[in-house]
Amino acid sequence: MNESPTILQWILGAITLATGLLVVLGRNPIVNAISLMATLFTTGLLYFSLGAHFVGVVQILIYAGAISVLIVFIVMLLDLRPAHVRVPGRSPTYVIGTICSIVFFVAAILSVLPILKNLGAIPSLGDVGESLGQAPEEISMQLLSKYMIPFQATALLLLAAVMGVVVLGKKNMLSERKGADKP
Amino acid sequence: MNQLIWSTVIIAFLCAFLLTWIPVMLIVERRAAAWMQRRSGPNRVGPFGLMQPMSDAIKMIFKEANIPRKANKVLFVMAPALAVLPPFIAMIVIPLGGSVNIGGTEYAFQAFDVRVGLMFFLAITSLHVYSVLTAGWASNNKFSLMGGLRAASQMISYEIAIGISMVSLVMTYGTLDLREIVKLQEAGGGLPAWGAALQPIAFIVLWICAFAETNRLPFDLPEGESELVAGYHTEYSGMTFGMFMLGEYAAMVAASAFLATLFLGGYNIPFVSEEALRQFFLNHGLVLTAASAVTVLLQFASLVAKICFFMWIFVHVRWTLPRFRYDQLMDLGWKMLLPIGVANAIGTMIVTYILRRGT
Predict the structure, then answer these.
(1) How confident is the model at residue A178, as a pLDDT?
(2) Residues whose CB is less than 8 angstroms from the CB of residue B140 and which lie 6 or more positions away in sequence, other chains included
(3) Strand, helix or coil at B269?
(4) Fewest CB within 10 angstroms: A151, A157, B138, B252, which?
(5) Does A47 touch chain B (CB under 8 A)?
(6) Is A136 near chain B, with CB under 8 Å?
(7) Which site among A47, A69, A162 would you substitute to test the B interface, given the most B Cβ atoms closer than 10 Å to its Cβ?
(8) pLDDT per residue as tens digits for the range A18-29
(9) A76 part of contact set with chain B, CB < 8 Å
(10) What is the residue-wise DSSP string for B54-117?
(11) Chain B residues with CB within 8 Å of chain A CB
């Protein structure tokens, strides 16, 4: 059974694309950060409209609710204004960044191309959702059996990240204390 | 009648329900404050001052909503709207009552019956922080920015404690479906099976976090008026300020409904099951639709009573406890609630394992 996207999904897709473009093209860092949040949020809503409730909720909870809050928070803390941000001219980072983004874009297009070629053959959106996201139990069973090693490896990575942050924080505190002791 | 029309009706009902709380809470809060401080409070407009919220609302609507010249206009106007939206959206997953039988089909008294309702509620309410952040930044005022940053770090910190205490609760019930959680509490025979009895520690941690998430008084540092004028809404006037107030009260109602659903049995009436109630009305000569509708209304009244309890505690605490210092707030979140939540989760894990090993 095949379904064409509904009007709601077209609107959500358009908003996702528009806010996504705003993330890259906007001049004001705060606007960029907030449109990033909007992009992630509408992506979550798209998952919802596909019936993948669990994935949609996780998308909103983690990406729109937590990670982009941190990004917005940091941009605000640094108080970046459009005037403070200079677009780099021909620095090496600029060149490397351009090359990387072109490669990434081409790779993304290539990976989506087979799907775009035969849009008619995509299984029903509802079916995909049901198998993917409606049952949190199913996902957790998969995580704890088939994908046990990647799951544990992610936990280890997160632990390493937490420890790294603690070490960095302590280091700053120690050097500050030393600095204060100096006459 | 199909599910879509039914959901639309319930969403309209929910909007009316949430908006009804605002004037009620305005007068209750002011009168309760006066009562606790041995004053009279607003008692001149209408009988017992009951028309005071009406006059407040009219005043707010007709005042000028000033936009500072150097503010970021789009974000400045967007922030109040972002404050109001999350509680209204989050409420759609709260089960308001059992099910109504219309033409042989059972319609659940809930706008959006989703299997991950618990996480849906948390996800949507976690978006509330954006209104505070954007309001603080867009005002282009240092007090506002300070308030916004405080609010952001506070809400992120307490969300972690919420997540951890949720883990232990979900392990106890074994489901993320709010309706199923209520049904389990009902099936256990009322009070002894309530979440508050099964998971008292998670209940208290979550209750404290609800105060922090709604920026209510012991945790209202984002708008601490003795330091920050009025925090993130310093520059707001007229109805743009009113929207923040509306959002705050709506968030309180949503948080209360959530707490009631998880820990106080939701819509269920203690010691009376839905079937028994429906059968009682059927035996007294009502047709099935009417019997189920009356049952659902009674259950809804039960939920409202529980929400009232939490709202009253919200008001009571506001006029009892002084505001925390900022480091005390962070200590409470990270050094008290989080370890307690983790310990509770581990304890629950062990107990659940032992209890379910036989089955």
Answers:
(1) 57
(2) B68, B70, B71, B72, B235
(3) strand
(4) A157
(5) no
(6) yes
(7) A69
(8) 999 988 888 788
(9) yes
(10) HHHHHHHHHS-----TTS-HHHHHHHHHHHHHHHHHHGGGS--EEEEEETTEEEEESS---TTH
(11) 72, 75, 114-116, 119-120, 122-124, 126-127, 129-130, 133-134, 136-137, 145, 148-149, 152-153, 155-156, 159, 176
The pair of structure tokens assigned to A55 is: 């994935």
A142 versus B204: the higher-pLDDT residue is B204
- What residue type is A55 in one-letter code? V
B159 contacts A57? CB cut-off 8 A: no
ipTM, 2 decimals?
Answer: 0.81
- Cβ atoms of B14 and B88 within 8 Å: the answer is yes
Confidence class for position A40, pLDDT limits 50, 70, 90 = very high
Test A66 with B156 for CB contact under 8 angstroms.
yes
The closest CB to that of A65, out of B123, B134, B176, belongs to B123
Can you say how many angstroms the Cα of residue A7 is from the centroid of all Cα atoms in its chain?
25
Q: How far is CA A68 from CA A56, B135, B213, in A?
A: 16, 16, 18
DSSP H or E segment with residue B41: none
